[in-house]
Write a structure and sequence with these properties.
Oligomer: heterodimer
Largest sheet of chain B: 2 strands, antiparallel
Radius of gyration of chain A: 33 Å
Shape of chain A: elongated
Strand order of the largest sheet of chain B: 1-2
Radius of gyration of chain B: 20 Å
Strand content of chain A: 5-15%
Distance between the termini of chain B: 35 Å
Shape of chain B: flat
Distance between the termini of chain A: 29 Å
Strand content of chain B: under 5%
Number of helices of chain B: 9
Structural class of chain B: mainly alpha
Order of helices and strands of chain B: HHEEHHHHHHH
Structural class of chain A: alpha/beta
Helix content of chain B: over 70%
Largest sheet of chain A: 6 strands, parallel
Strand order of the largest sheet of chain A: 7-6-5-8-9-10
Chain lengths: 456, 283
C-alpha cells in the first residue's frame, strides 16, 4: 500500500481554481463515497479549507490517474487543465506534507492556529463516513501529535503577525490584566473593528466607540456589545479610557497634546496607552513625550509584525527538524509488520491443541489408572499439561523468532506464508502500530473548528 | 541535631540565592525566559531552606534570629541581622512573584540582593556580641521591633526593584524598543507601578510599627538600666525618613505624583533607608 497526497493550495492555485475544487461539508459524504469507489483506493480523507483542497489517500499504488480524473471532473475541468495546479506527494513526502500542514508550516500565515483544527475536522468527517482505515487513523493521529510537539517545542505560532493583533499585544506591555481596563476606539473602519474584536477576545468588556457618524459606530458596536460615545466627548473620555486605538481618516489630529495633558492630571498617574493606526496620523506625536503616556503609530506596529514574522521563520527551522525526525520515525514504523497478534494467536492455538491431547491421553489411560487415588490422577494430568506446553514452546520458538524477523523487515508475503503454514489467520497481520490509538475518538478532545478560515 | 542541620541548610539557601543571581544574569544576557523561570524556582527553594533555618534556630534558641547577634557555622559566621534581612527579602520576593507571575523578574533581581546580604553576614558574622545580648534582647518588644523593621526594609527593597524595572520598561516603551518575541519580557508598566505602590505602603506601615515598638523597647531598656531616656540619632533619622515617606505616599495617592518621578522617589527612599540601616544601626 502507498500513502499519497494529491491536491492544491494557495501556493499553486488561484482562488478561482480552489473554489471549484472545494468540497462543502454537505457534499463531503458523496465525494468520499465516489472517490473510495475508485479502483485501488483503500482509505481517503478530504481536507478542504479556504486555502487548500487535498486528498490524503491510501491506495494500492495505481490509482493516482483515476483520482486526478475524478477531481478534474468535479471541478468541471479537463485533467490537463487541472494538472498544473496540483501537487502530488507519495510515501515519505506525503507524510512530511501532512505533518507540515498540521503544524501550520505550509499555511499562508506561518504558524496560524486554525489549520490543525480544520484537518481534525476533515479527519473526523471522513471517519464518520467510513473512509478511514487503520493506516490513515494512525497517520492522522501521528500528524496531530507532531503538530502538538511543534507548538510546544517551538515558538512558531507564538508571536502575533497582524497589525490589529500587534495593537492588542502592545497593550499587554503597559497593562497586565486587559479585561480590567477601558478601551476607546476612535473611528469605525475595518482596522478599528479588527482591533475591537482583538480586545474583546482578550476579555475586555468596557469597550467604547467614538465616530463622527454615530450610526456607523452603533452598527459596529452592537455585535461586539460595545458602547457608543459621542465624537465630541472623546477628549473628555480620556480620563476614563486606559487604551485608545485611533483609526480614522481625518486629515488632522483628533486628539492634541493639550487634550492628553489635561486628562493626565485627572488620571492621577494611571498610565495611558494610545495606538494610532491611521494614515495620516491622527494623534499629535508630541503626546508620547508625556510622563505615563505611551504612544505608538502604524510604523511601530509594522515593526512588531515584521519582527514577529522573522521570529516565526526562525522557529519554523526548528519545526522542520521536528517534522523530519517524526517522518523518519513514522516511516520506519510503517515499514514494519505487526506480528504480536499472530504470535498471540499461535500461542493460544498451541495451548488449546496441547490441552486436547492431554485430555485424550488421560482418557486412553483411564483403565490403566484405575485404583489410583484422585490426587495422583490430578498430579499426573498437571504434569502432562506442563510437558505439552513445554514441547509447544520449544517447537514454536524458531517459527516465532522467524516471524519477528519478517515483521521487522516488513516482509508481509513471507509472513503470510508462515502464518498459513502454521494454521493462523493471515488477517491478524497488520501494517504499522495500529490499535489502541486508532479511531476518531482520540481526535475528539480538540474542538473541531470551522472549515474555512484565514491562512490555512 | 539542629546545630548539625543549620549549617548545611544555610549553605543551601546561600547557594540558592547565588543560583538565582547566576540564572538571572544569564537569562537577561541570553534573553532566555527559561533561565528566568529557573531563577524564580531557585529563589523559592532558597527561601524555603532559609525559612527552615529560621524555624530551627527559633526552636533551639527560643527566640527569632534577629538583631546584632551571630552564631558560628562550619564555614563562617552567621550574622542574624543580615541573614534575616536576606530571608525576609527572599520571602517577600517569592510572595510578589507568586501574586504577579509576569513580574518574576523583580524577584529574580532581588535574589542578588539576598545573596549580597548573606555574604555580608558571613563577613561580619564573627563578632562577639555575648556581653550585651541577653539582657537587651530579652524584651518582648525587641522581636516585634526587629521583625517589622527588617520586613519594612524588605518591602522597600521590593518597591525599589519594581521602580528600577519601571524606569527601564518606561524608557524602552518611549524609545519604541519592544523586545523580540520569545525573549525575556519585562513586566508591564501598571504591574510594576502596582508592586511599587503596594510594597511602599506595606513598608511605610511596617516601618511605623518598627519605630513605635522600638521606642517602647528603648524606654524599657532605659528603665531597666536606670538611665534617662536618651534619644539616639538613629531614632531621629528613621522618624524623619518615615515622615518624608508618609508625605511622599500622600502626594502619590492624592496628588497624582506618579510615573517616572514616583519611581525615582521610591529608589531614593530605599537608598536613604539603606543608609540609615547600615550607616547608623551598624555604626
Amino acid at each position: 500500500v502507498r500513502i499519497r497526497i494529491l491536491g492544491t493550495s494557495h501556493q499553486q492555485a488561484p482562488v478561482g481554481v480552489r473554489e471549484r475544487l472545494a468540497v462543502p461539508e454537505d457534499a463531503l459524504p458523496s465525494v468520499l463515497r465516489s472517490l473510495r469507489a475508485l479502483a485501488g483506493v483503500r482509505e481517503i480523507v478530504v481536507v478542504s479549507t479556504c486555502n487548500r483542497v487535498e486528498l490524503v489517500l491510501v491506495d494500492d499504488g495505481a490509482c493516482a490517474g483515476l483520482v486526478e480524473e475524478a477531481l478534474a471532473a468535479r471541478a468541471g475541468l479537463r485533467r490537463e487543465e487541472l494538472s498544473p495546479y496540483l501537487r502530488r506527494f507519495d510515501d515519505d513526502a506525503a507524510l512530511r506534507h501532512l505533518f507540515r500542514v498540521c503544524s501550520s508550516l505550509d499555511s499562508m500565515i506561518l504558524g496560524e492556529s486554525q489549520i490543525n483544527g480544520q484537518v481534525k475536522e476533515s479527519y473526523r468527517l471522513a471517519d464518520e463516513n467510513g473512509s478511514v482505515g487503520p493506516v490513515l487513523h494512525r497517520l492522522f493521529h501521528k500528524a496531530f501529535s507532531v503538530a502538538k510537539r511543534v507548538r510546544t517545542e517551538t515558538g512558531v505560532g507564538s508571536a502575533t503577525v497582524s497589525v490589529a493583533a500587534a495593537a492588542v499585544g502592545m497593550a499587554g506591555t503597559v497593562f497586565e490584566e486587559l479585561p480590567r481596563h477601558t478601551v476607546m476606539l476612535l473611528g469605525a473602519g475595518e482596522m478599528a473593528e479588527l482591533a475591537l474584536r482583538g480586545f474583546r477576545n482578550k476579555g475586555c468588556r468596557d469597550l467604547y466607540i467614538a465616530n463622527r457618524t454615530m450610526e456607523r459606530a452603533a452598527e459596529l458596536a452592537a455585535p461586539l456589545e460595545a458602547a457608543v460615545l459621542p465624537w465630541q466627548r472623546r477628549a473628555e473620555f480620556l480620563e476614563t479610557a486606559d487604551i485608545v486605538v485611533c483609526s480614522t481618516a481625518a486629515p488632522e489630529p483628533v486628539l492634541t497634546g493639550e487634550d492628553v495633558a489635561r486628562a493626565r492630571k485627572r488620571r492621577r498617574g494611571r498610565p495611558l496607552l494610545l495606538v494610532d493606526i491611521s494614515v495620516p496620523r491622527n494623534l499629535d506625536p508630541g503626546i508620547g513625550k508625556l510622563d505615563g503616556v505611551y504612544l505608538f503609530d502604524i510604523d511601530d506596529l509594522g515593526r512588531v509584525v515584521e519582527q514577529n514574522q522573522e521570529a516565526r521563520k526562525k522557529e519554523a527551522e526548528a519545526a522542520e527538524r521536528i517534522v523530519a525526525e517524526e517522518v523518519a520515525r513514522f516511516s520506519r514504523m510503517l515499514s514494519q509488520v505487526q506480528v504480536a497478534p499472530l504470535l498471540r494467536a499461535l500461542g493460544q492455538k498451541a495451548a488449546r491443541d496441547g490441552r486436547k491431547e492431554v485430555e485424550r491421553t488421560m482418557q486412553g489411560l483411564d483403565k490403566a489408572l484405575t485404583g489410583l487415588p484422585e490426587g495422583a490422577r490430578t498430579e499426573l494430568e498437571r504434569a502432562l499439561d506442563r510437558m505439552s506446553q513445554s514441547i509447544a514452546k520449544r517447537f514454536l520458538a524458531d517459527p516465532m523468532q522467524r516471524a519477528r524477523q519478517l515483521g521487522e523487515a516488513g516482509d508481509l508475503d513471507r509472513l503470510s506464508d508462515l502464518a498459513a503454514a502454521l494454521g493462523i489467520d493471515t488477517a491478524l497481520l497488520s501494517v504499522g502500530e495500529m490499535g489502541e490509538e486508532g479511531g476518531a475518538g482520540a481526535a475528539a478532545d480538540s474542538a473541531p473548528s470551522s472549515r474555512t478560515g484565514s491562512g490555512s | 541535631v539542629i546545630s548539625a542541620l543549620l549549617g548545611p541548610l544555610y549553605l543551601l539557601a546561600i547557594l540558592g540565592y547565588a543560583s538565582t543571581t547566576g540564572l538571572s544574569v544569564a537569562g537577561l544576557a541570553r534573553q532566555e525566559p527559561r533561565y528566568m523561570r529557573a531563577a524564580f524556582l531557585a529563589i523559592g527553594l532558597a527561601a524555603a531552606a532559609h525559612s527552615v533555618v529560621v524555624v530551627l534556630h527559633t526552636t533551639a534558641a527560643h527566640r527569632l534570629p534577629l538583631g546584632p547577634a551571630a552564631d558560628e557555622l562550619p564555614f563562617g559566621g552567621w550574622d542574624h541581622g543580615f541573614a534575616s534581612l536576606a530571608w525576609l527579602l527572599a520571602t517577600t520576593s517569592v510572595i510578589a512573584g507568586t501574586r504577579w507571575p509576569r513580574a518574576r523578574l523583580v524577584s529574580a533581581v532581588l535574589g542578588g540582593v539576598a545573596l549580597a546580604l548573606c555574604l555580608a553576614g558571613l563577613l561580619v558574622g564573627h563578632r562577639e556580641m555575648a556581653a550585651f545580648l541577653p539582657d537587651v534582647l530579652s524584651s518582648a518588644w525587641f522581636p516585634i521591633h526587629a521583625l517589622s523593621s527588617y520586613a519594612s526594609f524588605a518591602t522597600f527593597a521590593l518597591s525599589a526593584a519594581a521602580a528600577i524595572l519601571y524606569l527601564v520598561q518606561d524608557r524602552r516603551l518611549k524609545q519604541k524598543r519592544l523586545g523580540h518575541p520569545g525573549a525575556v519580557a519585562l513586566p508591564s508598566i501598571d504591574v510594576l507601578d502596582s508592586i511599587g505602590r503596594r510594597s511602599f505602603l506595606a513598608g511605610l506601615v511596617l516601618l511605623g510599627l518598627g519605630i513605635t515598638t522600638g521606642t517602647f523597647w528603648a524606654a524599657q531598656v532605659s528603665r531597666d538600666a536606670g538611665s534617662g531616656g536618651d534619644i539616639r540619632p538613629k531614632v531621629v533619622i528613621t522618624l524623619v525618613l518615615w515622615i518624608v515617606y508618609l508625605v511622599a505616599w500622600q502626594a502619590r495617592s492624592w496628588l497624582g505624583f506618579a510615573g517616572r518621578r514616583a519611581a525615582w522617589a521610591t529608589i531614593l527612599a530605599f537608598v536613604l533607608l539603606l543608609g540609615s540601616f547600615v550607616g547608623v544601626a551598624h555604626a
